[in-house]
Amino acid sequence: MTDESTSARDENLPRKERERLMRRSEILAAAFNVFGEKGFERATLDEIAERAEFGKGTLYNYFSSKEDLFAAAFQRLLDDFRAIADEVCGQDLTVRECLTEYTMRSVAYYREHYAFCHTAMQEHYRRSVEDGSDTRKDHQKNVDYTIEPLARCLDLGMESGQVRKADPWTYAHIFVGLIDHFYLQLTREQLPDSEKDMRQQVDTLITVFCDGIAAKEKDGRH
User: Fold this and answer.
1) How far is CA 1 from CA 82, 88, 116, 215, in A?
2) What is the pLDDT of residues 21-44, one digit of tens each?
3) Backbone angles phi, psi at 93, to 5 degrees
4) Cβ 125 vs Cβ 133: under 8 Å
């Protein structure tokens, strides 16, 4: 979760506002854990309040219901992935380097928050099926929000001749789909333990994707 960057932005706020934001962040951290362990249906505000070491009444100062709290936790998840994309794509990297770094950081995030990531995705897809087109449209907006920096990176890659010309948003959706589908199908215990193992696994994924979208030279070679 983006506590460090949030803290840096909040330094100039009044003390009471900083404390309020800190309590909210602590509640969201507890929600990540409880929703991840119990799922949305079985999780309770009582347990989240206990995990955050606040009274249940304190939770209601920030969130009106369990649904409201889950929505805020899910938004924090989206914000965290957007922050990863913004930071990585803001560096002077090739497309391959950018996508590799993004994947490495995303998988590290999955390892740290695996249970909640799994719960959030399952719950969101369940609602997409049950609630119909409006929820699916919301899901599309959420995905677009998180991958917009990647789409821009791929678009620039096309302009510089690194990437075969096509719709950058399609490329970005395929790319994050590969990451999500592969890593969220694993259990936490199956995720790479060491950075070396993770790097090898990520390099394979990047090779498959980047070689597929690489611009071809005139003689037909990549």
Assistant:
1) 11, 16, 12, 36
2) 999 999 999 999 999 999 999 999
3) -125, 155
4) no
| ∠ CA 149-152-157, rounded to 5° | 130
The residue to which tokens 């460090």 are assigned:
4
Domain boundaries, the chain: 67-213
DSSP 25-51: HHHHHHHHHHHHHHHHHH--HHHHHHH
Query: What's residue 189's pLDDT?
Result: 67
Do 1 and 32 touch, CB atoms closer than 8 A? yes
Pick the CATH number of 67-213 from 3.40.50.150, 1.10.357.10, 3.40.50.10310, 1.10.10.10: 1.10.357.10
Task: Return the structure tokens found at 34.
Answer: 């409880």
pTM assigned to the model = 0.84
Residues in the chain: 222
